[in-house]
Amino acid sequence: MRTPLVVANWKMNGTLAEARALTAGVRDGLKRPRGVDVVLCPPFTALGVVAELLAGSPMALGAQNCHWETAGAFTGEISPAMLVELGCTYVIVGHSERRRDLGETDEQINRKVRAVLALGMTPVLCVGETAEERRQGLTFTTVEGQLRAGLAGLDHRAIGSGVLAYEPVWAIGTGVNATPAQAAEVHGYLRGLLTELATKEVAQRVRILYGGSVKPDNAGALTAEPDIDGALVGGASLSAQGFVAIVKKVTHKGVTVLKGE
Ligand code: PGA
C-alpha cells in the first residue's frame, strides 16, 4: 500500500519571516499527520529556517531543484550534497517552469534524478503536457518521453525509490485543474510504463502525485482516484490554512488526518 504524499512547492516566494510563519502554521495545523507524508519545499534561501522549525516534526524538507554535480565551478548552482547538509530528503526535479523558462533538458533532468538518488534523497520527477500537446493528442507521447528520459539508466531499485508528479502544464497556476478522470487516465498510463521499465511490484510501490491548481475543494476528488497518490501543490501551499485543508482532504485509501493528532 502506498502512503499518500502531499508536497508543497512554494516556488520563488517568501521572505524568511513569511517562511517561518507559513511553516509554523502548517506544523501547528498538522501536529502529527497520520497515514500521509508531508513535504515542504521552500526556496533555497529559506531551507535553513524551515529545517529548524520542522525539527522533531514528521514533516520532511525538500528543495525545488539542484545541480547534478557535488561541487565545482557551477556559478549560481546548489549541489545535492549541500541539500543533504541542510536536512533535505526530497528534491523536485524537472518542473515544467524550469523546462520551459530555463531550457532544462531531459538529459539534465536525468542527471539530477541520479544525483539525488545517489545521495539517498527522493527525487520528485515532474512530467506533463502543454495545452497544445493535449489538443494535438500528444499527451501520452509527451509524458512517456519525459518519463523514459528522466529515468534512463536507472535500475529497478532506483526507479522504486523515486516519486513521480503528473503536472499538466495547462493546469499549473491557471485555476483550471485536470479533472479526476483526466488525471487518472495519465496516472494509469504512467504506472503501466513503470511496470514496463521495472516490474509490476516496483510500479505498485511508486507514488504518482497530481499537480496543477490543486485546492482544498478538489484535492479530495483527485486523490480518491486509485492511481493518484497525493498532490504537488503550488499556489495553494502559500496559505497554511489552505495547505492544511488539502492535506486533510487526501482521501486516498480512506486516510483522514485530524487536527492535533
Ligand atoms: P499550482 O502549481 O498548484 O500553483 O498550479 C503546481 C506546481 O507548479 O507544482
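^ 2-phosphoglycolic acid complex. Residues 253-261 have pLDDT under 50 and may be disordered. The beta strands are 5-9, 37-41, 60-63, 88-93, 122-127, 163-166, 207-211, 230-233.
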